[in-house]
Specification:
Keywords: Signal. Belongs to the UPF0065 (bug) family. Pfam families: TctC (PF03401). InterPro entries: BUG, Bug_dom1. This is Tripartite tricarboxylate transporter substrate binding protein. The protein has about 325 residues and is an alpha/beta fold. It folds into two domains: about 160 residues, 3-Layer(aba) Sandwich (D-Maltodextrin-Binding Protein, domain 2), CATH 3.40.190; about 100 residues, D-Maltodextrin-Binding Protein, domain 2. Helices cover about 45% and strands about 20% of the residues. It has eleven helices and ten strands. Strands 1, 2, 3, 4, 5, 6, 7, 8, 9 and 10 form a ten-stranded mixed β-sheet that branches. Helix 1 runs parallel beside helix 9 and helix 4 crosses helix 11. The longest helix has 23 residues. The chain is globular, with a radius of gyration of 21 Å. The termini are far apart. The relative contact order is 0.19.
Length: about 325
Amino acid sequence: MAAVPAAAAVAGLAGLCAAPAFAQEWPAKPVRLIVPFPPGGGTDILSRLIATQLSEATKWTVVPDNRAGAGGTIGIAEAARAQPTGYDLVMGQKDNMVVAPWLYKKLAYDPVKDFVAVAHVAYTPVVIVTRTESKFKSLKDVVEAAKAAPDTVTYGSPGNGTTIHLAGEIFNSTAGIKMRHVPYKGSNPAMMDVLAGNVDLMVSSLPSAIGQLKSGKLRALAVTSAKRSTSQPDIPTVAELGFGKDFDVSTWYGIFAPAGTPAAVVKRMNAEVNKLLARAEVQAAIHEQGAEYQAMSTEAFSTLLKTDVQKWKGIVQASGATIE
């Protein structure tokens, strides 16, 4: 009988020794970073920036892998099913890790139970844009047109169930109007249609729109965050323009791993990403894309996820939005 606890103790000791050894050996092969949206959007841009910088700084091979669809939930679900070895990570955001659980009646993952928060990367305002030639010169013009002819003003988004989709619906409710939502499979196809004049407006993350704003092809009407963007300070907030004094919708981006991924690997990845975010050139690159860099410990990022999941339950329910 005495041999049983002794054997258990040896096994436990072996497990403790194995974790650091695994972390030292990891990564022994390329690490896949799932990007749950198509190329060209804000999530893709930030994912490729982080993957490239990590690869250069650590000599690891970090490979972005676009798995788009259903507001990012297809890529997140694939990550949830992956083996927890540290070789399959995903760039999640508020859209699919916080809002989706309350929008979708059937979701293939639980963001809190099925994942471990690895590294927060950035946050960004959501921006309402239209093409430069549009008749809408201001947000007031949009509201007046939508009130005069409900359901005729259209706005595109990266997909049903994204924070960006919800920003449009919350604005509808706050302004007392009815714009028609047109969902796309990512920011880039939505952007192409707003530039072509096929939809009137686009509600977008700032990184997804920044290039076209700088080129002069898009006009920004407002950001939906509580404060103006530091990278685009000339764009007014929705609240400043008189449409809801507490209007505040923004999104964040961060790396997640399947639940059960070795803690030593999670902490190592967190440390390497945070080192990147402390570098001036990386900060400048993120800022250039209209986002705000923000490093966190794994514990702080996990707390943010859990807090936001509960906060957005009430927001989504109040909006009345649901997705089959």
